[in-house]
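Tutorial handout. Part one gives the primary structure; part two gives the three-dimensional structure as tokens.
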Amino acid sequence: ADGNGIKCSSNSHVINDMVSDVFFQSRKRQRIDSQFRFIACGALRKNRVKGFDILVDAFMKAQFPEDVILNIVGDGPDRVFLQSKIERNGLSGRVNLLGTKTPKEISQLLCDSDCFVLSSRIETFAIVVIEAMAKGLPIIATRCGGPETFIRQEHGLLVDKENVDQLTKAMIYMTNHTADYDSNEIRNYCYSHFSQNVIANQIIDVYKEVLKKNHNL
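Part two.
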């Protein structure tokens, strides 16, 4: 209702964020080294909304062999805390805080990774996930408000937020089962739902619908 107590109604139409076409220009590469590389991206904020503290705990609990690596892209005031946590648990060189990177550098890092991990406590959408999907990466993501609305079983795994045990099990599973995920299918799904042309056409369709309704008034 409005301020006068009159009931108001409106139709809503959800249009998702788009992923830049730049991220579709390259894809996940087959490497000759034996490393398995997880990658995560986000600001290292004091409120730890991205859950990197949980992610480091899960990586530690998994007790991965030395050829399993976690790269975290991003920077912020919580970097000192995370670096101390990494060093204190003997994970230096295996959990790497890479700092801020350009979109081109992030694109390169995604191509050289095996799985993207989103450990956030809350997200409205998580555009970085669809950027990783554009490369064909399988995803591990928390049910934090955004990813569960578009990640399907064939794209990866969903876990409860702030659940170290579930995240640990998901990461261990991925090191053994990434071949089960079809990189082409992940890329195609991402393109058909979140590419620039698709989202632009959705916006144009909404404008056309509004103009048509106004014309018929």
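Part three, for discussion. Confidence is low (pLDDT under 50) at residues 1-6. Residues 18 and 67 are 34 Å apart (CA to CA).
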